[in-house]
Amino acid sequence: MKSDIHPEYRMVVFQDTSADHSFITRSTISTSETTTWEDGNEYPLAKVEISSESHPFFTGTMKIVDTAGRVERFERRYGRRKSADPAAEEASDETTD
Fold this sequence. Notes:
Blueprint: E1 10-16, E2 21-27, E3 33-36, E4 42-48, H1 56-59, H2 70-78, H3 86-96
Parallel strand pairs: 1-4
Antiparallel strand pairs: 1-2, 3-4
């Protein structure tokens, strides 16, 4: 193997900002922030928006993480999503009248 071509592989704390959950694992990610972990040592800190703690697949709940107005931008561009069942759409129109 060539020397000095591989990134540094070290312990890093990942913090899920939407669920206020942190975990530590090994990674090559480069970060400018650091934090003190439960063992008293200081580790690099990487902030993430979604982890297994807040992801809808793992938690069973729907949660929209909208950091840059993605949903609004999609709706402006393509409009709101329509129902696939026309009968259900008509029934919802009758209840709103």
